[in-house]
Design a protein that fits this description.
Radius of gyration: 16 Å
Helix content: 25-40%
Structural class: alpha/beta
Low-confidence stretches: 168-174
Number of domains: 1
Shape: globular
Largest sheet: 9 strands, mixed
Number of strands: 9
CATH class: Alpha Beta
Distance between the termini: 25 Å
Strand content: 15-25%
Mean pLDDT: 91
Order of helices and strands: EHHEHEHEHEEEHHHEE
Length: about 220
């Protein structure tokens, strides 16, 4: 199958996923797009896939350039925070099966992704979220307008937080940086495993819980 992976958010978890995912795509006809409106800052060096020379550059652009240089993968960048209309429009132009991989830290963007999933006839949605020590991943498949698996918004009520486009510069700067490097790495590793299963036609829909020293899928 030919997939186009859209990694929404390339911060703590998303940048680690994007760094290693091209290795799974070598020799395939799959492509990937990184989506983020954030700028690389010095504080990102500890737990994200950036170097000091990237400071001041958009995260999606900085990381996509590295990926294309190292692997020759077709990796594209969208250097803005997505809205429902522009994300849907971007995906609609693609002939490959869309795989949306959410790695964001706000429910406003998750709502955008879920609305896009509901509008698409066919897609795969893998949504990751984590706190300081634990997290979970929701996996669903939509085919012929039928959704199999779990949508986070169907499990519990998503918060009415601000979309990144609505945050002031001061609010952006004050966002917490609570996730530990180990937790982000674990989440990225489990996401890689799910993507590998997708590529070999063994994807498991449902929810994966990731805790300290423990990973359970149900």
């Amino acid at each position: 199958m030919n997939y186009h992976f859209y990694i929404v958010g390339v911060g703590g978890t998303g940048s680690l996923l994007a760094r290693d995912m091209p290795k799974l795509l070598i020799g395939s006809n799959c492509e990937m797009t990184l989506i983020d409106g954030d700028i690389v800052e010095g504080k990102n060096m500890k737990r994200q896939s950036y170097q000091t020379q990237d400071i001041g550059e958009n995260k999606a652009i900085a990381l996509s350039k590295k990926i294309n240089t190292f692997y020759g993968t077709n990796c594209y960048a969208i250097d803005r925070y997505i809205t429902e209309s522009d994300f849907f429009e971007v995906i609609q132009k693609e002939s490959r099966i869309p795989v949306i991989v959410g790695c964001v830290d706000n429910d406003a963007t998750r709502k955008v992704c879920e609305k896009v999933v509901k509008r698409l006839k066919q897609c795969i949605y893998i949504d990751s979220a984590n706190s300081e020590y634990s997290g979970d991943i929701y996996i669903c498949v939509k085919s012929n307008k039928e959704i199999k698996g779990a949508l986070r918004g169907k499990t519990y009520k998503l918060k009415k937080d601000k979309h990144p486009n609505e945050l002031s510069c001061q609010e952006q700067a004050s966002k917490g940086n609570v996730q530990f490097l180990i937790t982000n790495n674990k989440m990225a590793c489990v996401l890689l495993e799910h993507i590998h299963l997708l590529l070999i036609n063994q994807l498991k829909v449902g929810v994966t819980n990731v805790e300290r020293l423990k990973t359970v899928h149900y």
